């Protein structure tokens, strides 16, 4: 096992849970009106709201996912951060103040402010629910992922703990408690991440990193093997029989060696005549009965080592074994001039056993600090380039269309406060994303990466500085999930109770009834979130978040922007735009290569050859709005005339 | 439930100015952002060129983060000035 359960992390987590629950019950006494429940009475200070924005936005995907992606894929992981931050400029310049001016509790209010249309109320509520659920799944899955190694409990227990706590938070005091939970979590995340980065820069770089708490970093062995006349391979007592080259392993570039009854797998590189260089690998074996072995042993035996180191370091052209303390730019320069050992992955099937083999790939640092290790941009086909551009469009357009972000504009007292809180969010989130570059590269070079779960890279980097920092950052990781999930549940419960029950179905409830309906909806959505978090165990967190951004950008953003900036927009146009954006984005995702793999089919057989639908679904949504609005101009004029005559 | 904000908002005579300013700044940032995306998609090797001691990718990425903050602060200042001037 790479890391042990930390009593300190458990203690801090439960202390934080107790604190937020106490805060919620305290604030609940002040939440008696629907304004209080859905919009925290509109009285939150803009600075508090701005940090709460950051707390809401820096979800499990941002904190754990991006750091993990940078740790294993370098700059490509950071491109997610650049896209996520750029999306806030759309929110600031185009959406923040109008949303505040037009809306009341949910973003449906803003869309429907000019029309009072059942179509908009229904479509926007459905869109809110779909996007919120897509965003909820990875958060709940993330909770399970965290709880497994840290609390030593099964995945479903983690999901249930987070689900129950968050549902209690939301169902007691709604947006007020959600705001303060997000504020504390956002502020603490910024402070603790800064501490880790400063510690990292102070430590500097070394070819023999410190590794996890007190444990020495495993030194990966290299052997020189010679080929015998009969085709067998021999190296320092290890022997591979003749025919190894034609085996499943040999075909994939590996050789399985045996010594003292212990089997190991080595990456083979051909050298001068008859000699081979063999590099030690890490491998996970899945046996016929489904049992998983890590480097041939049970996980608890600790033979599956954490990885991540520099092969050589160059400072000002001089090769050194370690650097001393470095400034931020000097740190990046040193990595750029050095050689980083990244890890490739291949699958080999031998008989009933399946092997997942991780092998060393020494890579120039400058290559790590430019795109192309994850995204196919070098010598890419048109479709691959399209897929990359489409993803960057989704990240850019998705933020300003996320329902749980949009509802935060209703918690402040004025348009200027909405604008200022967005700027605070940009500063806080931008600073955090700057830190993620160092956290990710730090994990990449400090021997802390767990290759079977790179989501844990940031907490494990903290563990290399001692268990206290690890405990703090782990409990914050839980808080990250708590903060984001609570915001999503408020958005989803608002869509059910306010948009669907009150507006669309016209169940004219009393003010107390509206709050009660919101709380019941929060409990129901919370239970659904718990269920989905358990069902989707093992699914890639970033993959699901990418869906949420693409769907939000396609279904919501065209409607919001066209309503604000095109006078001919009609209610039917807005409803059609949401419907077309939602259906086309979801449809394209369901027939994408990534989904084809999940159906057990070959990705090459998928009807479309890209995974990110935004570059198609956003224009389709805009076209639907324009065409339907132009076709329904007469209806809009007639409705206006009738309204005027009636008045 | 009726529409409109949950809290009473005063009349904002600066709204038109702020909308135009927001659109202008949005266009500027969008061009810079998509410049980044287009270079990555069409000539990724350019991103490995060294500029100010770092790869162009790092300089451009950091530039996008800082540029966002600078534009946001300028936008806020201009909006605040306009509100003070037009909402007397």
TrEMBL record, chain A:
Location relative to the cell: Cell membrane
Superkingdom assignment: Bacteria
Primary residence: membrane
Topology with respect to the bilayer: Multi-pass membrane protein
Keywords, ordered alphabetically: Cell membrane, Membrane, Symport, Transmembrane, Transmembrane helix, Transport
Matches recorded under CDD domains: SLC5sbd_u4
Transmembrane regions listed in the UniProt entry: 6-28, 49-71, 77-96, 122-147, 153-176, 183-202, 388-410, 422-443, 463-496, 517-536, 542-566, 573-592, 612-631
UniProt xrefs under PANTHER family: CATION_ACETATE SYMPORTER ACTP, SODIUM/PROLINE SYMPORTER-RELATED
Homology family: Belongs to the sodium:solute symporter (SSF) (TC 2.A.21) family.
Protein name: Cation acetate symporter
Organism: Desulfuromonas versatilis
Automatic annotation (TrEMBL), chain B:
The protein's name in its UniProt record: DUF485 domain-containing protein
Alphabetical keyword list: Membrane, Transmembrane, Transmembrane helix
TM segment ranges: 21-39, 51-75
Lineage start: Bacteria, Pseudomonadati, Thermodesulfobacteriota, Desulfuromonadia, Desulfuromonadales
């Amino acid at each position: 096992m790479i890391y042990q359960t930390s009593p300190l992390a458990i203690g801090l987590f439960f202390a934080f849970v107790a604190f937020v629950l106490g805060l919620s019950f305290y604030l609940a006494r002040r939440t008696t009106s629907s304004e209080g429940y859905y919009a925290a009475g509109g009285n939150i200070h803009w600075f508090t709201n701005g940090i709460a924005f950051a707390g809401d936005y820096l979800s499990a995907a941002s904190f754990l996912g991006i750091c993990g992606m940078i740790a294993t894929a370098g700059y490509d992981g950071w491109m997610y951060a650049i896209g996520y931050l750029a999306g806030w400029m759309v929110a600031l310049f185009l959406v923040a103040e109008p949303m505040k001016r037009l809306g009341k509790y949910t973003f449906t209010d803003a869309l429907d402010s000019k029309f009072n249309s059942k179509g908009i109320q229904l479509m926007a509520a459905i869109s809110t629910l779909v996007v919120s659920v897509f965003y909820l799944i990875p958060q709940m899955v993330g909770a399970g992922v965290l709880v497994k190694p840290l609390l030593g409990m099964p995945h479903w227990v983690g999901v249930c703990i987070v689900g129950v706590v968050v549902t209690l938070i939301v169902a007691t005091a709604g947006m007020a408690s959600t705001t303060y939970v997000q504020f504390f979590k956002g502020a603490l995340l910024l402070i603790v991440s800064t501490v880790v980065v400063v510690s990292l820069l102070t430590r500097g770089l070394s070819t023999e990193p410190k590794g996890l708490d007190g444990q020495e970093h495993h030194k990966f062995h290299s052997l020189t093997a010679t080929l015998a006349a009969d085709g067998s391979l021999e190296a320092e007592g290890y022997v591979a029989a003749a025919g190894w080259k034609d085996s499943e392993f040999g075909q994939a570039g590996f050789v399985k060696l045996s010594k003292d009854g212990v089997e190991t797998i080595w990456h083979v590189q051909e050298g001068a005549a008859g000699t081979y260089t063999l590099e030690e690998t890490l491998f996970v074996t899945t046996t016929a009965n489904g049992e998983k072995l890590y480097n041939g042993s049970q996980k608890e035996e600790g033979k599956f080592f954490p990885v991540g180191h520099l092969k050589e370091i160059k400072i000002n052209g001089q090769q050194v074994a370690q650097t001393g303390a470095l400034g931020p730019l000097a740190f990046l320069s040193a990595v750029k001039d050095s050689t980083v050992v990244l890890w490739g992955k291949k699958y080999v099937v031998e008989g009933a056993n399946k092997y997942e083999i991780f092998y060393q790939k020494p890579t120039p640092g400058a290559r790590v600090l430019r795109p192309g290790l994850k995204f196919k941009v070098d010598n890419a086909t048109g479709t691959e380039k399209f897929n990359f551009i489409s993803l960057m469009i989704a990240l850019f357009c998705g933020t300003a269309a996320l329902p749980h972000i949009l509802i935060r504009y209703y918690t402040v007292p004025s348009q200027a406060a909405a604008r200022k809180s967005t700027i605070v969010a940009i500063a806080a989130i931008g600073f955090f994303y700057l830190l993620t570059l160092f956290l990710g590269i730090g994990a990449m070079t400090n021997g802390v990466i767990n290759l079977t779960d790179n989501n844990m890279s940031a907490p494990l980097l903290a563990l290399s500085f001692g268990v206290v920092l690890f405990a703090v950052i782990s409990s914050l990781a839980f808080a990250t999930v708590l903060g984001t999930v609570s915001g999503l549940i408020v958005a989803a419960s608002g869509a059910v109770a306010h948009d669907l029950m009150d507006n669309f179905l016209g169940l004219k409830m009393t003010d107390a009834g509206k709050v009660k309906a919101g709380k019941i909806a929060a409990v129901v959505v919370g239970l659904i979130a718990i269920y989905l978090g358990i069902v989707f165990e093992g699914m890639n967190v970033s993959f699901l978040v990418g869906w949420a951004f693409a769907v939000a950008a396609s279904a919501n953003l065209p409607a919001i922007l066209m309503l604000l900036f095109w006078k001919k927009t009609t209610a039917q146009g807005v409803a059609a735009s949401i419907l077309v954006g939602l259906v086309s984005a979801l449809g394209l995702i369901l027939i994408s290569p990534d989904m084809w793999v999940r159906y057990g089919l070959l990705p090459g057989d998928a009807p479309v050859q890209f995974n990110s639908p935004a570059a198609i679904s956003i224009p389709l949504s805009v076209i639907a709005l324009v065409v339907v609005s132009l076709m329904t101009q007469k209806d809009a004029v007639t409705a206006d005339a009738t309204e005027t005559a009636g008045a | 439930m009726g529409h409109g904000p949950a809290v009473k908002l005063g009349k904002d005579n600066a709204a038109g100015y702020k909308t135009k300013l927001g659109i202008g700044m949005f266009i500027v940032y969008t061009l810079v952002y998509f410049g980044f995306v287009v270079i990555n998609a069409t000539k990724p090797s350019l991103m490995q060129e060294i500029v100010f001691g770092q790869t162009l990718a790092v300089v451009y990425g950091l530039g996008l983060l800082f540029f966002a903050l600078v534009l946001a602060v300028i936008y806020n200042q201009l909006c605040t000035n306009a509100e003070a001037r037009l909402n007397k």
